[in-house]
Amino acid sequence: PPPADQPLLIYHAGQFSRAAQENAVRFVREGGKLLLIGGALAAGEPLADLIGATVIPNQSHACRVQFENRQLHCIQSQYQITATQPGDTVILTDEAKQYKYGIRGSREKGSFIYLCADWNTTILEQRDLLTELLSAAGAEPVLSCSNPAVCWTVRRWGQQEAIFLINLHHGILKTSVTRYASGKTALLGNFTLKPLEVRMIVRKRLS
Fold first, then answer.
1. Residue 107: HSE in the Cβ half-sphere, 13 Å Cα cutoff
2. What residues contact residue 123 under an 8 Å CB cut-off, 6+ apart?
3. Predicted local distance difference test score (pLDDT) of residue 62
4. Is 172 in contact with 149 (CB distance < 8 Å)?
5. Cβ density class 123-149: b for 16+ within 10 Å, e for less
6. Among 25, 39, 179, 200, which residue has the fewest nearby CB atoms (within 10 Å)?
7. In whole angstroms, what separates CA 176 from the centre of its chain?
8. β partners of residue 57
9. Where are the alpha helices (DSSP H) in the chain?
């Protein structure tokens, strides 16, 4: 498992091997913070046993949901949570709070958030909430763009890294880019992306 002081994010954990799930369970029990997003957890699997929630096919097709005290749009879920363990808190529901899509809880030394709804990180309000959840769990930023419409990803090898800036829109996007690592901050500059352009920046890793 990763160090317990670094949060672990898993998408669609039901597709992970039993060994990988056991590592995630051990991570939580030893004090880690786990964020599970998307899908149902199969009964008898390690993570399903850890969370202890009953998940069934969803009967609601509402596109607006309530996360604690804020509304989110365009979140779809094929599943709903019908039963939880004592002490767990429901944090994601439909507007009428009839259907439950997310819970928060603690297990031994660690904690978890489980959202059975599917997350779309191209929608800004969903991306911002995911960023907040990871930050609250102790995650540190890697890169930021001043223009939130610009998507990005980072790939590393040896002492080099490639940063991909992605414009999914049919118009020009301008942004400044800042890189974070090991407590250091580096402004990489200002960039103008053509419609549907992917720009690759190869540079030495910030360390």
1. 23
2. 73, 74
3. 65
4. no
5. eeebeebbeebbeebebeeebbbeeeb
6. 200
7. 24
8. 79
9. 18-29, 46-51, 124-136
